[in-house]
Write a structure and sequence with these properties.
Blueprint: E1 6-15, E2 31-33, E3 38-40, E4 43-44, E5 47-52, H1 62-71, E6 76-80, H2 83-86, H3 101-110, E7 114-120, H4 134-137, H5 149-168, E8 179-184, H6 197-213, E9 219-222, E10 232-237, H7 240-243, E11 254-260, H8 276-288, E12 291-300, H9 333-346, H10 348-353, E13 355-360, E14 365-371, E15 378-384, E16 391-395, E17 398-402, E18 406-410, E19 418-419, E20 444-447, E21 458-460, H11 466-470, E22 476-485, E23 499-504, E24 508-513, E25 516-522, E26 530-535, E27 541-550, E28 568-574, E29 581-582, E30 588-592, H12 595-599, E31 613-614, E32 623-630, E33 647-652, E34 655-661
Keywords: Glycosidase, Hydrolase, Signal
Family: Belongs to the glycosyl hydrolase 35 family.
Organism: Rehmannia glutinosa
Length: 675
């Protein structure tokens, strides 16, 4: 390393305990399709795709991620377009740095690969508000994802902006670029019934709008069984070879837009795994059953930097993908799928030009043959669907051994070149090594003051709803009220204490009484609402109750996302001599964010605004911690292990690398994410 740099780390604690694309042929669209496959430059193609999301990695990582995807046998990379990072403020656009969509697409094309562009604009993706910018929620009379005029106006305006940007850079295939397919909407069938007729109208409108804006490449709608004739309905899931009935039209090919390589995690979850053998079986089965495109979701999950993840979703995303969070190969998953792609390429001709014949040997055993009459083009898939017992299949006079739950691929109807259960790829493990250079020898801290009602400028009779109050500008909001008690209100017995109860719609909160920390409470991804109950000490005279309410991302799925709520709703004091006292309408002072955010303590310049003191042995809530360290040796990925912390956010050199919550343990007794 030519130069050692100094790196600033800050943490806020909430609780401290082949050429792939080419020029358009004259008078012929570059990308067409029929019931068998996509046809690119006049040639049928088998497409092996993987999702890599540009904002979940850094531009310096993109070249290696793309090259490794190609090395793994992929010829397509799929990505969403993320509305809320590109237009965080209405009319103000950002396509720089991690958000440089055009650079990312061009880089894929330069590597001889194709692109599927999922415009959305609703993307889900475990992304904050499903990709919608918060300002859209505030448009008068809007209903997301429905035949609602305000929503359709903004959806079309945004979609047109993205398409025009891509057209200007000539990135569509019929312009000579790498984009061979685009997607509008996303898994709408999951919520369509909630909108009744307005849902049906919206699906047709969205398809017509997309095709009307650009018809040079095919459009898809995933998990949309009633997709209009102009778009292709596709499958998402783990076993589309068995669960997908096929597209809703004889002239549409079978495409698998999301094959989940594991499962995203939320805070409080135990680890998620999916075996390479299971993925390989599912992919082989899909291609054996007329499939011609498989997309791994994710091929590289990456990192939910900053506050981009949706409710309770961890900062690490799909770490069990073939390329892990850091872009390292996860073996044998990467290698086993690479071998599968090689085998499927060998059987490409029979698959695309042969006629399928399915021979059912028994309930679990099956032979699928693709053969072209009058030629030597023949390929076969031998399937054993029994999860426990191996089997032998006699095919054309030869016995073939099949391990349990496996498929053998015979590209010439004679020779087995691949079995989904037989792994020959190497195995690997990821190990974190403590850096010798990046030593942190001195921590400093800055404690936030606990505000009283008069410190908070915004006043209202009851606590403001948290989403609307913060407007997605911070995870935090203060609420504080004052109550005067006399001797007759307080319990007479010393062994009885009043209880503070806070019924919250989520996601988490810290409570303080007279500036003293009382406790921490939180919901979960399944049940965000929770009730906080703690005994407290009160005094005669004025008492101040302060609450630091928190969100952990905004919702990303379900119907009527614009009508979700969070934050404290009912606050009571129980156990007083005068009975239960409802403080909900007691008049509250309120503030969005904590002071350190406004001071930008996470930057070098902003950190000078605070008086830092040496770290002591008694951690306290709502505290900033700062340290410097030298850049680590080598050029391997770098992580920060957070096991001594609780909940908060981490910045490095002014950049937020995401939330952490290591105090939220899984049922296995360990944090969902430690690094």
């Amino acid at each position: 390393m030519a130069q050692v740099s100094r790196i600033l780390v800050l943490v806020i604690l909430s609780l401290a305990i082949a050429s792939a694309y080419g020029k358009k042929k004259k008078d012929q669209p570059v990308v067409t399709y029929d019931g068998r496959s996509l046809i690119i430059n006049g040639t049928r193609e088998l497409l092996f795709s993987g999702s890599i999301h540009y904002p979940r990695s850094t531009p310096s990582m993109w070249p290696d991620l793309i090259k490794q995807a190609k090395q793994g046998g992929l010829n397509v990379i799929q990505t969403y377009v993320f509305w809320n990072i590109h237009e965080p403020v209405q009319g103000q656009f950002n396509f720089e740095g991690n958000y440089d969509l055009v650079k990312f697409i061009k880089m894929i094309g330069d590597n001889g690969m194709w692109v599927t562009l999922r415009i959305g604009p609703y993307i889900e993706a475990e992304w904050n508000l499903g990709g919608f910018p918060y300002w859209l929620k505030e448009v008068p009379n809007i209903t997301f994802r429905s035949s609602n005029e305000p929503f359709k106006y903004h959806m079309k305006k945004y979609s047109e902006m993205v398409i025009n940007l891509v057209k200007k850079e000539k990135l569509f295939a019929d312009q000579g670029g790498p984009i061979i397919m685009a997607q509008i909407e996303n898994e709408y069938n999951n919520v369509q019934l909630a909108y009744k007729e307005a849902g049906k109208d919206y699906v047709k409108w969205a398809a017509d709008m997309a095709v009307g804006l650009y018809n040079g490449v095919p459009w898809v709608m995933c998990k949309q069984k009633d997709a209009p004739p102009t778009v292709i309905s596709t499958c998402n899931g783990r076993q589309c070879g068995d669960t997908f009935p096929g597209p809703n039209g004889p002239d549409k090919p079978s495409l698998w837009t999301e094959n989940w390589t594991a499962q995203y995690r939320v805070f409080g979850d135990s680890p998620s795994q999916r075996a390479a053998e299971d993925i390989a079986f599912a992919v082989a089965r899909f291609f054996a059953r007329n499939g011609t495109l498989n997309n791994y979701y994710m091929f590289h999950g990456g990192t939910n930097f900053g506050r981009t993840s949706s409710s309770f979703v961890t900062t690490r995303y799909y770490d069990e993908a073939p390329l892990d969070e850091y872009g390292l190969k996860r073996e044998p998953k990467f290698g086993h799928l690479k071998d599968l792609h090689r085998a499927l390429r060998l059987i490409k001709k029979p698959l695309l030009w042969g006629a399928p014949i399915v021979q059912k040997i028994s309930q679990d055993l099956e032979i699928t043959t693709y053969e072209k009459a009058g030629s030597n083009i023949c390929g076969a898939f031998l399937t054993n669907n029994n999860t426990r017992e191996p089997a032998t299949i006699n095919f054309r006079g030869v016995d073939y051994y099949l391990p349990p739950k496996s498929i053998s691929i015979l590209p010439d109807c004679k020779t087995v070149v691949y079995n989904t259960q037989t792994v020959v790829a190497q195995h690997s493990s990821r190990n974190f090594v403590v850096s010798k250079k990046a030593k942190i020898t001195k921590w400093e801290m800055f404690k936030e003051s606990i505000p009283s009602p008069h410190d908070l400028e915004i006043k209202s009779k009851s606590p403001k709803e948290l989403y609307q109050f913060t407007r997605d500008t911070s995870d935090y909001a203060w609420y504080s009220t004052r109550i005067n008690l006399d001797r007759r209100d307080l319990p007479m017995r010393p062994d009885i204490l009043p209880v503070l109860q806070i019924a919250s719609l989520g996601h988490a909160l810290l409570a303080f009484v007279n500036g003293e920390y009382v406790g921490f409470g939180h919901g979960s991804n399944v049940e965000k609402s929770h009730v906080f109950k703690k005994p407290i000490n009160l005094k005669m005279g004025d008492n101040e109750i302060s609450i630091l309410a928190m969100t952990v991302g905004l919702p990303n799925s379900g119907a009527f996302m614009e009508k979700r709520f969070a934050g404290p709703r009912v606050i009571t004091l129980e156990g007083l001599m005068s009975g239960t006292l409802d403080l909900t309408h007691n008049y509250w002072g309120q503030q969005v964010g904590v002071a350190g955010e406004k001071m930008q303590l996470f930057t070098e310049e902003g950190s000078k605004k605070a008086k830092w003191v040496a770290l002591n042995s008694t951690p306290s809530p709502v505290t900033w911690y700062k340290a410097y360290f030298d850049a680590p040796e080598g050029d391997n990925p770098v992580a920060i292990r957070m096991t001594s912390m609780a909940k908060g956010m981490v910045w490095v050199n002014g950049q937020s690398i995401g939330r952490y919550w290591v105090s939220y343990l899984s049922p296995l007794g360990s944090p969902t994410q430690e690094e």
